[in-house]
Design a protein that fits this description.
Length: 231
């Protein structure tokens, strides 16, 4: 499997996804927007993975490459390839499909429960996720569900947590790919966001629950393995 990763910031890399890909001998290529904007041809990869980042999908004035990235994502989806978006990546998918992306009522930072919907129970690719489980969250924006998409998970702070579109496109608002190293980097880079709010945990509380990383990694591992077998 040839996997291309869109990475928006140095400290929000593929984490466990890269570990899984290397262990399974999948080929990985990158577009690192913080270094150079060079998007591949549609036929140069089999799966597209879109990572997170601190910017919003509407910040084209600061990050002009967002415009071409959204067009690229829409073209990849239309081509029928496998696509997985995480956090900002999920928002970019939603925007590329014509849905509205906007600030959520609450920022959600830390380990919080998501609950699966009835759609998820009937989706074979999402059976790797328990009915209710804690995942790592770090986002302030949310999105409306794109037309034709099915909602798969929701949380108390943010209703639209995951969706599937046309069986090959998955969007996750949360970070199951997080590792101990990437968690530490995110906390360091985003420490100014850790304010006292209802759905924002302290750095100490977040680190005290890093034992949850293993279960999160297992969930995304199983999802990726099932996505690979769709072809």
């Amino acid at each position: 499997m040839r996997i291309h990763i869109l990475q928006h910031e140095r400290f929000e890399g593929p984490g466990y996804i890269e570990v899984w890909a290397k262990e399974n001998n999948h080929e990985i290529t990158f577009t690192k927007f913080y270094e150079q904007v060079k998007l591949p041809g549609i036929n140069d990869f089999d799966m597209l993975i879109i990572m997170g980042g601190p910017m919003g999908i509407y910040d084209e004035d600061k990050f002009p490459w967002l415009t071409s990235e959204k067009i690229f994502i829409k073209n990849v989806i239309d081509s029928g390839k496998l696509v997985l978006g995480i956090c900002l990546g999920s928002q970019l998918i939603a925007a590329s499909l014509g849905a509205k992306v906007y600030p959520n009522k609450f920022k959600e930072i830390g380990w919080f429960d998501i609950k699966l919907t009835e759609n998820a129970k009937n989706n074979l690719l999402f059976t790797s996720f328990p009915q209710q489980t804690k995942v790592f969250q770090w986002h302030g924006d949310t999105f409306d569900l794109p037309e034709g998409a099915l909602l798969l998970a929701e949380s108390e702070a943010c209703k639209n947590q995951a969706f599937v579109y046309k069986e090959k496109v998955f969007a996750l608002q949360f970070h199951c790919e997080v590792t101990e190293n990437s968690l530490q980097e995110m906390l360091e880079e985003g420490k100014n966001e850790l304010k006292k709010e209802k759905y924002i945990q302290t750095a100490e509380e977040i680190l005290s629950k890093k034992y949850l990383i293993s279960d999160n990694n297992k969930m995304i591992q199983k999802l990726l393995e099932k996505m690979v077998n769709i072809r």
